[in-house]
Amino acid sequence: MPLLVKICGLSTRETLDVALASGADMVGFVFFPPSPRHLSLEKARELGAVAKGRATKVALTVDADDATFENIIDALRPDILQIHGQETTARVRDIKQKFGLPVMKALAVETAADLAALPGYAAVADRILFDARAPKGATRPGGLGAVFDWHVLENLDLKLPFMVSGGLNAGNVAEAVRVTRAGGVDVSSGVERTPGVKDVEMIREFIRAARATQELTVR
């Protein structure tokens, strides 16, 4: 299957247009106030209309309550929900049932021991996103530019589609795909000039580099 490329944390029309024109499969929008990429519902409505039918719209939340999900879904009309907090397997199941949308669960990875929770989440989520574990004291769980040891995922036997994230950029995405055999890659800080400020040329370069790795993917 073709490698899926996700550009996350988009917040302006210009950068969204470039991501779409460059062939991003997924475009991610962050709804988490501590993040420099946090999007207002009004802006989400505007950008969501632009992306409709051109790429998979992903709404990223962190331990959001039902009212927050309802507001986001009303504004963005996302195709998939990405949950990036401490949500339990029961909460994942509950979100899917209540909102009728696919769920991608992010799992923080540092060592092989962090994969212990994977079977439970794989049983209820539609897709898994492996991201680097945030350092102690961090105010948000992702988008920090940290890379984890991709070899932790080497020879992973997971029937569910999965993506990798965490410190990816145009220079290392090929190696990440080669080691993990992931079906998708997700970038945010790796295409930014400063936290929350995307660079259009870096977006283009990342997508080009990711596309060049497609023959390496196996699922």
Indicate the percent of residues in helices.
25-40%
Unreliable runs: none
- Strand tally is 10
- The class by helix and strand makeup works out as alpha/beta
* CATH 4th-level superfamily: Aldolase class I
Written as H for each helix and E for each strand, in order along the chain, the element string is EHEHEHEHEHEEHEEEH
Number of domains: 1
Number of helices: 7
Q: What is the overall shape?
A: globular
CATH topology: TIM Barrel
Mean pLDDT: 92
CATH class: Alpha Beta
CATH architecture: Alpha-Beta Barrel
Distance between the termini: 5 Å
The main sheet comes to:
8 strands, parallel, barrel
Radius of gyration from the CA trace?
A: 16 Å
Spell out the blueprint of helices and strands.
Layout: E1 4-7, H1 13-21, E2 26-31, H2 41-51, E3 56-61, H3 66-76, E4 80-83, H4 89-99, E5 103-109, H5 118-122, E6 127-132, E7 162-164, H6 173-180, E8 184-187, E9 192-194, E10 197-198, H7 200-211
Parallel strand pairs: 1-2, 1-8, 2-3, 3-4, 4-5, 5-6, 6-7, 7-8
Antiparallel strand pairs: 9-10
Helix pairs in contact: 1-7, 2-3
